[in-house]
Structures are given as structure tokens and as C-alpha cells.
């Protein structure tokens, strides 16, 4: 594939930026990839592993002459980065981001950007619980959705070009209104993360009572919660602070359902429980049929031997 952009600047060099760098290289989508991160340590690791063609010390240096700038920092840091790069953005450049919340990023970044620069917010629905410059891999976006939330009046050609980049990275691209995005993600990602954090916190409190049996006998359900609850604390703090309304709305509904299930257990209403679990089982089937997860038992994981190695 020929390059979609001449020079791509990645601001922040963690899981998502690193995976973008690998995926863009895999398909030859960028003439040059320039990267920068806040800490000298991350920049040094990125240099050592050859993550980008060039690693520079500041965001302002990175965006010089770039026709695509991708903000890959936690949501709460987007506004400050936008303020730093705004004076040096090339006319006609596209600025996008990969933040997990969209309305707040638009509010933070939009006002800083000069006229003549295209701002097209985005969110790849792909990730792992790992972070940092070594955690990225080229396949992260394969067959995963990327949601673009262009603001009114955005140049369709600029959007089409960004779409081509993401499709070249293996992703399925769709456009969505920013508020709708935030509500959908509150249901599918943000609230489930909060529930996982809570469950692991509860188990940790209980650990004192059960003398580390929680770890020793951890069953699949709890292990999956611990994986999610190992996600980056800064990123997730920012997600909840910036998607406050939608998360609180979904948490309210969640609490109501939880109370209904609690009551069914207390009153021995097995019909209610069975009907509820039958309905939820269908959702899993839908996700597998949509190609968004494996139908192999236990997510296709190999059984773990007693010495901890995969069989
Ligand atoms: P990450 O691996 O933790 O990397 C974050 C990068 O941002 C690091 O290079 C870090 O620099 C930099 N950074 C952190 N705080 C900063 C600040 N205050 N100012 C400037 N730079 C700062 O994170 P990630 O998982 O790639 O996430 C990046 C973005 O993608 C976030 O907005 C997140 O919401 C979104 N996202 C994440 C996932 C996921 O599953 N991880 C999925 C989709 C979207 P140092 O290394 O120098 O500290």
C-alpha cells in the first residue's frame, strides 16, 4: 500500500501509539513516523527499540511538518498537549486522538486548534491491560472497530484519509456522534472496568479473612476481573472523570438490576435468575458471531500447568 500521510507525529508512546507505529509500518502507511513522550525514559526506550523513525524531545518539535498528528496521551492531558502544539501545526494538517472519551477531548482540544487544521477525534476499540512503549504490537487493531467522531463542518476528504489510515492498520472504521460514543462506551467498556476494579478491591479486602485463598483458588471469573483491573490507573482515572455523566447514568441502571438479582436470590426466585442468565448468554453469542471474540472455551487460553507454564 502507498503512504497515506507523508509524516505522522505520535504524541505519547504507549500501547496505542506503539501499536499504531507497528501497524503503519506493516502496511507502509506513513512516509515518516516521528514520536515523542513526556519522560526521557520512555523516549530512550522508544529510541532503543526503534519504535519510530525519529524520536524528538517535545511535542512541538514532533508536529513540525507533520500532515497527521495523533494525540496518544491520557484523556486528561489532551488539552495541554493541544495548547503546546497549536502554534506549530502545519496548515492543512489533520489532528486526531485515540482517547477513550470523545466529548471531553473535543472540548479540551478544539478551542486550541487554528483554522485550516482538520480536527477528527477518534477511538480505537482495541487494547490490553499493558502499557508503555514496549507493549504495542502490529495486530492490535486487526478486525477491531475504530470510531471517528468528526465535528460539524469537518472536511470529508480529511476524514476519508484518516479512515484509509485506520483501515490500512487493519481496523473497521465507523463514524458516530461524540455524545453517543460516550454513552455506548460507558456501557461496553467504562462501567465494566469500574465493576472489575470494585470486585478485585472487595476480594483484596477479603484476602485478610481468607488468608490468600482468593489468589490460590482464583477461578476464571475472578481472573478475568483481575486482568481488567490491572489496566493503567492514570488512563482509567481520566476516563471516569471525563465521562462522568454517561458512567453515572449506566451505574444507576446497573445498581437497579443488581438489586433485582439480589432480591431474586434472597427470595429464591430461580425463574428470574434463569431467565436473566438466558438473556445475557445470547449477548455473548452475538459478540462471537460479529467476529469480535473467539468461540473457543475460556477465550482459547491454554490450560496452565502446575509450574505456571502454558501447556
Ligand atoms: P500508555 O501506554 O500508558 O501511554 C501513555 C503515554 O502518554 C505515555 O507515553 C506517557 O508518557 C504519556 N503521558 C502520560 N501522561 C501524560 C501527560 N500528563 N502529559 C503528556 N504525556 C503524558 O497509554 P495507552 O494505553 O497507549 O493510552 C493512550 C490513550 O489511548 C489514552 O487516552 C486512552 O484513553 C486511549 N486508549 C487506550 C486503550 C487501552 O486499552 N490501553 C484503548 C483505546 C484507547 P511517559 O511514558 O513519558 O509517562
General description of the model:
It is a single chain. This protein is of the alpha/beta class. The protein folds into two domains: 172 residues, Rossmann fold, CATH 3.40.50.720; 115 residues, 6-phosphogluconate dehydrogenase C-terminal fold (Orthogonal Bundle). It has twelve helices and nine strands. The protein has a six-stranded parallel sheet, sandwiched between helices. It is globular and about 65 Å long. The chain starts with a strand and ends in a 22-residue tail after the last helix. The model has no long low-confidence stretch (mean pLDDT 93). Bound molecules: NADP nicotinamide-adenine-dinucleotide phosphate (NAP). The site of NADP nicotinamide-adenine-dinucleotide phosphate (NAP) has 26 residues, from helix 1 and strand 7.
List keywords for this structure.
311 residues; alpha/beta; Rossmann fold; 6-phosphogluconate dehydrogenase C-terminal fold; 2 domains; six-stranded parallel beta sheet; three-stranded mixed beta sheet; 9 strands; 12% strand; binds NADP nicotinamide-adenine-dinucleotide phosphate
